[in-house]
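Quick illustration, no need to memorize.
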Amino acid sequence: MGPLTKLAQALQGFATRWLLTDGTTDVVFDVTSSWNKSLPGQVAEHAVEKGVDLNDHIKRGNREIRMDILMVQEVGGLSGLFQDDPNVRADQLETWWKDGEVLTLVGKETLENILIESMSEARAAETSDARVYSLILKQVRIAETDAVSLAGAGNRDSETEESA
């Protein structure tokens, strides 16, 4: 099935549309022809004692999303349905990739803390001015730390100045 056939099928229902956003700028994918989410993990190879919590022996990786997307200027003279020039959107994706920008993926579900791990573009005569990409996105775990102040811990420099 060619990209234009996929486009026509996907346009029958906009449920296949996804977007990436940094909170300020949105990049809408006019068609998402495939979407796969994996939850990678690695189980320890060594023997485990009976009765031990097996969760301690699983190393979980970051959630990975693989998408094949199509961004178009217009279809059959209909340009009002689509976002900016696909070249502008492609440039924005590349900027986010280069800068390691933390993004949110919005579609059938919303996934936060997404990074673009890699992107590859396919060009063919049948896709004309459309931009066709395969994206690999990773959801990263972001740890937050709280600052703790210790009672009685003061600024030693100011204590030294006062006693002098």
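Strands lie at 18-21, 26-29, 31-38, 41-43, 58-60, 64-71, 103-106, 110-122, 131-139.
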